[in-house]
Design a protein that fits this description.
By secondary structure, this protein is mainly alpha-helical. It contains five helices and no strands.
Length: about 130
């Protein structure tokens, strides 16, 4: 039986020990990564690579939608953004349009960066209490 490489073990451990906010950040990072790979697929005229990675981004956004707590009004705003991103991803996948994917990636980066700031502020508040 082959010995699992250290990187795989580290990543598995990182995921299993992550807090919910850290998992959310990892999902944003994953969505950005897969969107970048899809863009590369389009540039390489590799339709399967583009399609596979667009679908991965869609699954991550579906997960974000499924975990929204709709008792908070801001959840409706996030849901609208996620629905928009899913529509754009569908369009990008049909047309294999890299510009649409770049737009989606811009939104994902912005949301990720905002999430990082929320995490920092929450950590700061925790330290003060």
């Amino acid at each position: 039986m082959p010995i699992p490489n250290a990187y795989t073990k580290y990543n598995d451990s990182k995921i299993l020990t992550a807090s919910k906010p850290e998992l959310t950040l990892m999902l944003y990072e994953g969505a950005i990564k897969f969107c970048n790979i899809a863009i590369l697929g389009i540039e390489q005229n590799n339709i399967e690579k583009a399609h596979t990675n667009i679908k991965k981004v869609q699954r991550i956004i579906d997960e974000f939608r499924a975990t929204l707590d709709m008792k908070y009004p801001v959840a409706e705003d996030f849901d609208r953004v996620y629905v928009y991103l899913l529509q754009r991803l569908l369009e990008a996948n049909v047309k294999k349009d890299k510009e649409i994917l770049e737009e989606v990636n811009t939104h994902l980066r912005s949301m990720r960066d905002t999430w990082k700031e929320v995490m920092k502020k929450a950590h700061t508040v925790q330290e003060q209490t």
